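Summary of Year 1 activities. Much of the first year was spent building the evaluation harness for sequence design. The harness presents a backbone, in tokenized form, and records the residue chosen at every position. We chose the following record to illustrate the format because it has been used consistently in internal testing since the harness was completed.
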């Protein structure tokens, strides 16, 4: 199985579990809210691996964490919240994808999404040509 196929299968699984956590809340904030946030960040990390599989793990980790942090800070502008009020379906979809309220716990959830994925990949790396560096 090719590297990109494995990334694609991982993306499908991550999206499915993330959607389940949002569509079927159980009254536990870890499942109902923060699992989805962590998986959002994991999805971005894995997506970067799909697009650039030869990119070092440390680079993907850094890019994924910077991207989710930037998206979270962007929520402070109020633009995503305003998009949620717009009658256009695309604006509302973008608002849902970006989120509308900044939260420090969201940032922590993103760390719990990206770091374990990067560490798992580092540990299970099959390409022995070079050992990737861990960036934290």
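For this record, the design step produced the sequence shown next.
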């Amino acid at each position: 199985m090719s590297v990109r196929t494995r990334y694609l299968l991982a993306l499908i699984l991550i999206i499915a579990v993330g959607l389940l956590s949002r569509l079927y809340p159980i009254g536990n904030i870890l499942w109902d809210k923060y699992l989805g946030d962590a998986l959002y960040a994991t999805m971005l990390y894995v997506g970067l691996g799909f697009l650039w599989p030869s990119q070092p793990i440390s680079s993907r980790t850094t890019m994924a964490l910077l991207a989710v942090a930037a998206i979270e800070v962007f929520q402070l502008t109020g633009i995503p919240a305003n998009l949620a009020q717009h009658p256009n379906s695309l604006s509302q979809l973008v608002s849902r994808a970006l989120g509308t309220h900044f939260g420090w716990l969201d940032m922590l959830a993103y760390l719990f999404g990206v770091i374990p994925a990067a560490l798992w990949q580092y540990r299970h790396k099959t390409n022995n040509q070079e050992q990737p560096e861990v960036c934290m």
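Residues 3-123 form one domain. Quantitative recovery figures across the full test set are reported in Table 2.
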